[in-house]
Each structure stands twice: as structure tokens, then as C-alpha cells.
Amino acid sequence: MKDLNLEQINKDLKDKSPEQIIAWALSIAKNALVTTNFRPYEVAILNACTQVDPNMKVIWCDTGYNTPQTYKHANELINSLELNVHLYVPKQTSAYRDAVMGIPQIEDPNHAIFTEQVKLEPFNRAMAEHTPDVWFTNLRAGQTAFRNSIDIVSMSKDGLLKVSPFYHWSDEKLDAYLEERNLPNEFKYFDPTKVLSNRECGLHS
Where does the Phosphoadenosine phosphosulphate reductase domain lie (predicted)? Predict the structure, then answer.
């Protein structure tokens, strides 16, 4: 994976469909997976991945703070797309955390501990157990400054090939994609670690 010419690959893939991009990545992968938190537009990457590989591993790291709407949406997609979900949750319950620290603001020293507990530790545990070489995500340009600096295919800090098939897509184009395929979306989503909508979530930077 380290010998790949990412610049050339991204040029070659720029005008390909998400399904074509996924098929290309799977052709060089030994162990691929897709991660999700069922936030808005996640249904696009989940649908595209399962169209190419119906049994692809789906890693869901649930912070424990999702909205009721998100949980219902997740359950709907797991059933309708027949997702091969592997669920990871924090080692502490949200009730325990609410009692001892609540949801800290970004300037609170406890914010780093909170993020580690609800997001980073479950994610790192999932990656350690599944040891993927290709990681599909729904990152898109325009979401954060960091995400603007990558491309369809990039290399994570841990040497994983990170593939974002919808990287160049706008919300409007994604809306059309979902409408054409009669796929549901859900916007009532809450990420307790981000505070601001344009902050990076911690998994990708």
C-alpha cells in the first residue's frame, strides 16, 4: 500500500462513480471495512459499499449520545441494507459519565478525556481487532480544513489506505443520489465531541 502513487490514483478516480471507486479499492484490499456513525448522508456510503460487497464489515462506534432519531435511522438501515455491523461502545456508560463529568466544552480539560472515552478508544479497539488495510469513509471536501487537504484516496497516519468515494460530492448531488435510490436520510444527529459543526471529530486528523 505504501508504494501507491496517490496523486495519479486520485487523478484516475476523480470522474469515477462511488461504486467504481469502491470496486477499485477492493481489488487491492486484503481486509476492507467501512466505518459509520449514522450521521446525515451516511446512508450513501453504506449503500454504495454494500452494492459492491454485500458482506462488507461495517464498524459502528456508538458514543452512547445519539438522538432517538439516529438510533431509529441506524436500525432501519441495518435491516434494509442487511448491514454486517460490528458494534463498538465506550467502556463507561453515558449515565456514569453524566454523573462524573457531563459533556465538557472544548476549553474544559476534561474534553480530551471525554473524546478518548466515547470516540477514540472504541474506534482504536475496533481497528486493532479487525486490522483493515482499506478503510472506507464518507469524508467530503468542504467539511473541515483537514478534509480539504486530502482527496478520494489518502493514507492515514497509521498507514491505512483511506478511501472516500463521495469526496467531491455536494449535499445537492448526494440528495439526488439518495432520491434516485429511495434511501432515507436523518438530520437530527448529535456528536458530543465536536461542539462546533466545522471541528474535526478526532478520528481522521
Answer: 42-184
40-67: b (≥16 Cβ within 10 Å) or e: bbbbbbbbbbbebbeebbbbbbbbbbbe
C-alpha distance from residue 79 to each of 96, 124, 129 (Å)? 30, 26, 24
Dihedral sign for Cα atoms in the order 163, 169, 170, 174: negative
CA distance 29 to 164: 15
3 or 179, greater pLDDT: 179
**DSSP tag of 17:** -
Predicted local distance difference test score (pLDDT) of residue 165: 97
* DSSP state letter for 90: -
Residue 29, pLDDT above cutoff 80:
yes
C-alpha 12/C-alpha 9 separation (Å) is 5
Q: Span 176-192, mean pLDDT?
A: 95
The residue whose grid cell reads 479497539 is 125
Task: Name the CA radius of gyration of the chain, rounded.
Answer: 17
Number of Cβ within a 10 Å radius of residue 78: 17
Cα separations in angstroms, 141 against 28, 76, 164: 24, 28, 10
Share of the chain above pLDDT 90, in %: 83
- What is the rounded distance in angstroms from the CA atom of residue 114 to the CA atom of residue 197? 18
β-pairing, 32-36 with 161-163?
unpaired
- Grid look-up 478516480 returns 13
- What letter represents residue 43's amino acid? V
